[in-house]
């Protein structure tokens, strides 16, 4: 998955997230068109109601559920705007949430808000910590009974891109986890 | 004499006014600029996940392109620079704010289930993990029709111009970017890549390509040129689509030209939720905006700030509340079913945005992190690795 955030000179904005799902999608390549194909139907696997073990069959034309959250936050009064979204499968919502909290509530710079190591809660209710996550906080959470995942996630593929407009100033940040770099003028 | 006096008074007043104006500008302007940090831009910006694609988007803006033009150009580029992540064979969701109307719109071009698909597909879920490779998992790609719809509604530059920078990138000796190289050389991906048709693109003999190795990709360059010239329709109702379907059919795909022709992006209203002084606009199901809104709605009631997290205990407290909110959110993810295909759950996601629900959840969050899974409606949740 990949996300791009754009802010134009007139204040118009676009958050766009695009994906072929897991790395290299279905690993099916069309040699004559040069196109790699997605494996998005995999996302139908997690589609069941609480307490039910039945996964309903796919419906032609159905779009599988997604974690993608290309979002725009607007503060009309202060003339500020945050254009944000991310990549990383099920980590997307955790990563984007923490970037928004860091930026809008905790006063981080946009770059630091995105760079801060994240935590994630998996479907078993266990907490997974990105390497370099604050050890003191991790210990504090364990003391409160938060159970951490036994099997450590091999890689954290979360990557957040955002643009923040604050009056006349425009800040843009791409995630260094994916060696990204924003551009502007 | 009276005329001379009046002139003198006028000149003095003019001089004083000019002086005042200069003083005001001298005081206000530096303050105005000083309020931006040194890393700020003053007009516009693009944040893609690579420098080269951010630059391509920025140039499009400087050529008087709209933000949608810039986003499309940056995404076309990303399909080349980070092909492990996205490309024309995938799907896209746009959230677009139009400053002149104040309206926000979502264009949803996520892939769809083809008309003909393996009836026992979902029986293969467990065995197919973690990578789920294979043609049976391919959804109808929506990417290009998503671009075309966004461009039709908000584009300013000619369609073809958005493709030119990436075509040039491919034609001028494109090399393997470092991040792509990392993926190509990841041990758990390599066996799958080696046994797939991607081998012909990303391998040199028996070895995967390394960072900065030449990556000739003339087929994609030709495709981009064709789409630039003939429009997105060439993939959905034209020769390019026919070629794509034929190419992947021998790899087991049941995708048809009719599936491609039938794909339509959806233009929908965003979810809208007040978040302090901000309004959050995010995409409705099947995208994840309702879950993001739910988490932030719960958390905003705890009033976290730089002051409240200044000490170690404050930090632990905030992350504890975050973890609890995320647990409740995992228990709500089932609500992201496609509302068009499952009309029974049409408005269920709206419930997630209600303040009464946020309040109810906040009341269930205490100092403990060891509640049973049922406390969070997490019992029976089997996995959620949707992308």
Shape annotation of chain A: globular
Low-confidence parts of chain B: 26-32
Helix segment tally of chain B: 17
Rounded to the nearest angstrom, the radius of gyration of chain B is 27 Å
Task: Output the radius of gyration of chain A.
Answer: 19 Å
Based on secondary structure, the structural category of chain A is alpha+beta
Quote the beta fraction of chain B: 5-15%
- Structural category of chain B: mainly alpha
Number of strands of chain A: 11
Order of helices and strands of chain A: EEEEEEHHEEHEEE
Question: How far apart lie the N and C ends of chain A?
Answer: 26 Å
Mean pLDDT of chain A: 95
Strand order of the largest sheet of chain A: 5-6-9-10
Most extensive interface: pair and counts? A-B, 140 and 171 residues
* Biggest sheet descriptor of chain A: 4 strands, antiparallel
Largest sheet of chain B: 3 strands, antiparallel
Question: Which stretches of chain A of 5+ consecutive residues score pLDDT under 50?
Answer: none
Gap between N and C termini of chain B: 85 Å
Helicity range of chain A = 10-25%
SSE order of chain B, one letter for each helix or strand: HEHHEEHHHHHHEEHHHHEEEHHHH
């Amino acid at each position: 998955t990949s996300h791009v955030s754009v802010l134009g000179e007139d204040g118009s904005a676009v958050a766009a997230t695009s994906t072929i799902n897991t790395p290299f999608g279905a690993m099916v390549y069309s040699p004559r068109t040069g196109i790699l194909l997605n494996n998005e139907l995999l996302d139908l696997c997690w589609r069941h109601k609480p307490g039910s073990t039945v996964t309903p069959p796919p419906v032609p034309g159905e779009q599988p559920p997604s974690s993608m959250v290309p979002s725009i936050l607007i503060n009309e009064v202060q003339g500020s705007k945050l254009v944000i979204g991310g990549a990383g499968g099920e980590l997307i919502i955790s990563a984007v949430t923490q970037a928004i909290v860091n930026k809008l509530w905790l006063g981080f710079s946009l770059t630091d808000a995105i760079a801060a190591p994240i935590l994630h809660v998996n479907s078993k209710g266990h907490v997974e910590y990105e390497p370099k996550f604050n050890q003191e906080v991790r210990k504090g959470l364990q003391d409160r009974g938060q159970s951490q995942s036994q099997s450590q996630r091999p890689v954290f593929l979360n990557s957040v891109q955002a643009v923040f407009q604050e009056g006349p100033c425009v800040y843009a940040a791409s995630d260094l986890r994916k060696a990204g770099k924003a551009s502007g003028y | 004499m009276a005329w001379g006096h009046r002139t003198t008074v006028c000149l003095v007043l003019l001089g004083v006014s000019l002086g005042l104006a200069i003083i005001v500008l001298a005081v206000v302007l530096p303050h105005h600029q000083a309020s931006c940090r040194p890393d700020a831009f003053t007009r516009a910006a693009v944040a893609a996940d690579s420098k080269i694609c951010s630059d391509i988007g920025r140039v499009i803006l400087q050529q008087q392109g709209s933000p949608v033009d810039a986003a499309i150009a940056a995404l076309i580029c990303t399909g080349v620079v980070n092909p492990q992540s996205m490309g024309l064979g995938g799907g896209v969701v746009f959230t677009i704010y139009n400053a002149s109307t104040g309206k926000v719109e979502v264009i949803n071009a996520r892939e769809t289930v083809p008309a003909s698909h393996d009836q026992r597909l979902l029986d293969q879920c467990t065995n197919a993990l973690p990578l789920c490779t294979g043609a049976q998992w391919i959804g109808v790609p929506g990417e290009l029709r998503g671009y075309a719809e966004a461009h039709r509604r908000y584009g300013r530059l000619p369609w073809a111009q958005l493709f030119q920078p990436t075509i040039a990138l491919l034609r001028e000796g494109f090399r393997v970017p470092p991040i792509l190289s990392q993926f190509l050389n990841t041990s758990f991906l390599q066996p799958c890549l080696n046994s797939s048709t991607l081998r012909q693109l990303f391998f040199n003999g028996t070895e995967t390509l390394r960072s900065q190795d030449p990556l000739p990709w003339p087929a994609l360059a030709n495709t981009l040129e064709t789409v630039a010239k003939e429009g997105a329709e060439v993939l959905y109702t034209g020769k390019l689509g026919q070629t794509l379907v034929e190419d992947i059919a021998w790899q087991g795909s049941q995708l048809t030209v009719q599936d491609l022709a039938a794909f339509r992006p959806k233009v929908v209203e965003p979810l809208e939720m007040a978040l302090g002084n901000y309004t959050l606009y995010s995409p409705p199901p099947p995208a994840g905006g309702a879950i993001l809104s739910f988490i932030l709605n719960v958390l905003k009631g705890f009033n976290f700030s730089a002051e409240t997290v200044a000490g170690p205990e404050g930090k632990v407290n905030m992350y504890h509340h975050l973890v609890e909110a995320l647990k409740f959110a995992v228990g709500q993810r089932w609500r992201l079913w496609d509302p068009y295909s499952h009309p029974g759950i049409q408005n269920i996601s709206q419930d997630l945005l209600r303040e009464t629900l946020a309040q109810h959840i906040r009341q269930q969050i205490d100092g403990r992190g060891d509640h049973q899974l049922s406390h969070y409606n997490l019992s029976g949740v089997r996995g959620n690795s949707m992308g």
